[in-house]
Amino acid sequence: MPTVRLLADDEMPPESRAVLDDIRATRRSDFVNNFWRALAHDPKTLRRTWESLKEVMGPGVLDPKVKELIYIAVSVAHGCEYCIHSHTAAARAKGVTEAELMELHAVIGMAAETNRLVTALQVPVDEVFQVR
Amino acid sequence: MPTVRLLADDEMPPESRAVLDDIRATRRSDFVNNFWRALAHDPKTLRRTWESLKEVMGPGVLDPKVKELIYIAVSVAHGCEYCIHSHTAAARAKGVTEAELMELHAVIGMAAETNRLVTALQVPVDEVFQVR
Amino acid sequence: MPTVRLLADDEMPPESRAVLDDIRATRRSDFVNNFWRALAHDPKTLRRTWESLKEVMGPGVLDPKVKELIYIAVSVAHGCEYCIHSHTAAARAKGVTEAELMELHAVIGMAAETNRLVTALQVPVDEVFQVR
Amino acid sequence: MPTVRLLADDEMPPESRAVLDDIRATRRSDFVNNFWRALAHDPKTLRRTWESLKEVMGPGVLDPKVKELIYIAVSVAHGCEYCIHSHTAAARAKGVTEAELMELHAVIGMAAETNRLVTALQVPVDEVFQVR
Amino acid sequence: MPTVRLLADDEMPPESRAVLDDIRATRRSDFVNNFWRALAHDPKTLRRTWESLKEVMGPGVLDPKVKELIYIAVSVAHGCEYCIHSHTAAARAKGVTEAELMELHAVIGMAAETNRLVTALQVPVDEVFQVR
Amino acid sequence: MPTVRLLADDEMPPESRAVLDDIRATRRSDFVNNFWRALAHDPKTLRRTWESLKEVMGPGVLDPKVKELIYIAVSVAHGCEYCIHSHTAAARAKGVTEAELMELHAVIGMAAETNRLVTALQVPVDEVFQVR
Asked: Residue A40: CB partners within 8 Å, gap ≥ 6?
């Protein structure tokens, strides 16, 4: 259950409604997921978050599918259930296969294991890894 | 500083030395980084970790460069300084560009922000994201 | 679902019951939330936790509303659903407004983003920030 | 040590230099801390991050000092050394007292303890905390 | 709800079915919990994870009950609900008492509190703790 | 470097000095580690933290060595360098062997891996694990 009510289109401030219009236009879909309906209480944060997301997840040097895999990896490490579901759905929609998702999970798990081993052992960074 | 001494080749048990030989052969390089020299106190964990890493980071359905990006993403979310440095170096060695690394960081940062917004708002998962 | 049964007043040890009496008296309310009913299995931890909470969240140099905002921020970063709900409720009860809560969330999200960017880039601490 | 070189003013792209000019003008200080010099490799992320930070930490409904306390709380929970130092310095510069910082730490520690107790016990959210 | 369907025995690939047979034989029980049914989509990761778990949690120098307590501690710090429930059940099955579980929780909570206090204060490691 | 100055005995308030006297008496050692010298700025938090630690880590139903292992596990998962060093030293002082420490690390790493796999797959808790 959310800590604020999820707002229907006709319950939110006009500035928030305008952001939802842009989300719909950008995604070419009428569906707007719950995250934006929770943020809609705060038009300023809604707009800034959406504009940032559009810029970061938009065209760049990394494949959009790879960006979704990275997003999932971070969301798993942060334990964000909603984000894992929404970005796994987004990854599938962009063509990421089930085999790729399972391999992603294997890498995440492996990284978690060696991260914690390294931290337990407090391994010092090798000189060769240093940026000059 | 580490919580155990980093072992030189001639200080470690023969089973650990054998794992280092395989690391060198697999990577076609004489250099063995500190992580393995710390783990070398425990040949069983050293062998299992190396064999697992070889399997997970070896040939699969994801590009080896993408796997390094995922590894970095998890390491950043877990705050593992050593892992960030070693896998950033590995990514560069595999041909990941500086522009790709910066875009990776932007995605990690964006994911962190929306992860925490979602958690703060406790947004419920949309039905449409459910796997049937 | 909890890993232990939540105890009703007449099911808990008398020492735990005494702590609940103090919770009720301090808060001037008959209602005791689930956290204390789970801890009630262990009177020693129940008492220590309650006494500590009373001291930390009691009168000091920070406004009680600010302390609730800090509590929520930490709970979000730790991903503690229960804590987010209970302290959001406590914040509202103490007069924190919806606009303040949304601004809190924006700050939490922003901090998460720059925290991860800084960690990804392993930015060294500027000398000027050092305490002498 | 950083994963990228920190850029001096005359080493960065002009778009990044322009952002630094705005940082200097906004803060009325010539000093620009390392975070921005690391981000300067990526003018797009540098600009977006600075614009977002200016908006989030700028005038709103919460006291600027309180926003710094929240920023520190999140940074501690995420284990971001640089962020803890830079925002502790910022808090002091804005007039946060040593006593307030110590009380902040006490609240962070207390929240961490109850967060983990709640998670260990998997305490279900009380109905009374639900938003309708 | 899972991000993949949980597979019944007759839905999974034969290599996954073989791992489940080994889980049943090793545990001397017909019951196989959901974790393995989700991993069963990926026979390679299923096998590696099961073989690693068998080795790590099998006979060694630490009491099997102590290993379960450690597993719970890590799972709480990572906020993994499923893992907390499954390893709390495993701990009870191995004879860990309710009093031991409550004391475990107290130690986890205390560690979380001092961890965050130390991080907030950025306490430097005492020379006397260094390994030579 | 710390965010506050570490206080020598003659620089701290008398109430803090009294707590250090109790630390010395309890541990039968003149040495007082940096954590307490940082907390000494705030006698109230210093006293509460020390009293809590004495109670939690004092005699109970778990072996003191096991409590140190749990403390290390939590500190690793939280990425607290100081805490890892101080509690690894404490564990060694109480008789924990190097083999036990390495096995602890293996369990921590394994738990981290399965924690993240479970989170990635969002595995639902089996009914059989539920407490009635």
From this structure: A7, A12, A13, A16, A17, A19, A20, A46
